[in-house]
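Tokens as discussed.
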């Protein structure tokens, strides 16, 4: 396979989480961590565990948390040649707590940490790349990171790579819906695949109803939309067909990162030339398994386990 390199760019952080539910972050209580994290980092780790050439563009500090992240990439086979180590700046981190109603509260240290000092994208980074994955969380994390994503998109398109976009935006960091659409416009312009949740699809298009919003994305020139629906699986939209793929039943331990694992399964499925329904099964399997372990990246499935849950044999599609 000549063109099978998958790249992501963005925040590389550790996550530190409350041990107990319903424990607000404004008082002392026990934490567990650091766990490797950052939406684009979870994505790329899942790509590598599925056995694909995977490469990350990002930055961490020259400290122990940075070591934790780099060691994880090395173990799983994510190429980190374009991960800058920023001296005397701390590695990015996020503190998270869960509430019994299912909601989460994050405190982010991203834009003002090493994670926010992304290396300048260069044409060499994208030579022979198949896909570049962009996350809304990165676009929300500050001007430097946003500009680096836009540049990466331009260079990837020039290199004939395709762009996938997870609009996991943080509207509260962007000052409202209009600003959010403005920030996403350059990425949407370049993207061929968008992987939103229902409310993200609605926000992104200003359309009510998730399915109508996905159709609006197609009308806007997106080739493929994969709507993530938690325990209901996903619906895939193209101009030619709509394919609903049911979820796999699992015991959910920690849902953070399931969306990024799903994205990785989906992009890997497409890059292996698999049919849409099969690609949806692989993505659902990665999402479901992603939710079964504590820590955002800890549930990233290895190829054999994801394929087994999705009942895919290596030979099912012509590759
Ligand atoms: P996050 O942003 O927290 O990573 P998300 O909101 O982007 O997640 P979800 O829809 O929660 O995305 O999850 C992504 C995919 O993972 C789903 O489409 C589904 O395939 C799988 N998944 C998530 N939760 C479950 C669950 N409880 N049971 C089975 N599969 C799940
Ligand atoms: Mg998400």
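Sequence:
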């Amino acid at each position: 396979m000549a063109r099978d390199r998958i790249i992501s760019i963005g925040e590389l952080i550790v996550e530190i989480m409350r041990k107990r539910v319903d424990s607000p972050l404004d008082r002392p209580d026990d934490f567990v961590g650091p766990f490797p994290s950052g939406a684009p980092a979870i994505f790329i780790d899942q790509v590598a565990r599925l056995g694909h050439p995977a490469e990350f563009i990002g930055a961490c500090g020259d400290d122990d948390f940075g070591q934790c992240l780099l060691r994880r990439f090395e173990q799983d086979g994510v190429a980190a040649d374009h991960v800058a180590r920023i001296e005397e700046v701390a590695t990015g981190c996020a503190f998270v707590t869960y509430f019994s109603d299912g909601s989460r509260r994050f405190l982010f240290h991203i834009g003002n940490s090493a994670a926010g000092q992304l290396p300048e994208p260069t044409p060499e980074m994208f030579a022979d790349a198949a896909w570049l994955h962009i996350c809304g969380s990165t676009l929300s994390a500050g001007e430097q990171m946003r500009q680096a994503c836009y540049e990466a998109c331009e260079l990837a398109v020039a290199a004939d790579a395709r762009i996938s976009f997870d609009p996991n935006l943080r509207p509260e960091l962007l000052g409202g819906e209009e600003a959010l659409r403005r920030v996403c416009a350059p990425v949407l312009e370049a993207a061929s695949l968008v992987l939103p949740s229902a409310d993200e699809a609605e926000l992104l298009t200003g359309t009510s109803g998730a399915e109508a919003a996905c159709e609006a994305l197609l009308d806007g020139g997106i080739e493929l939309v994969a709507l993530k629906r938690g325990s209901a699986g996903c619906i895939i939209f193209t101009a030619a067909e709509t394919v609903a793929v049911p979820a796999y039943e699992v015991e959910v331990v920690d849902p953070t990162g399931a969306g990024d694992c799903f994205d990785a399964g989906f992009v890997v499925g497409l890059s292996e030339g698999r049919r849409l329904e099969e690609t949806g099964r692989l993505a659902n399997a990665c999402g479901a398994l992603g939710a079964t372990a504590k820590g955002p990246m800890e549930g990233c499935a290895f190829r054999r386990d994801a394929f087994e849950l999705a009942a895919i044999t290596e030979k099912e599609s012509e590759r």
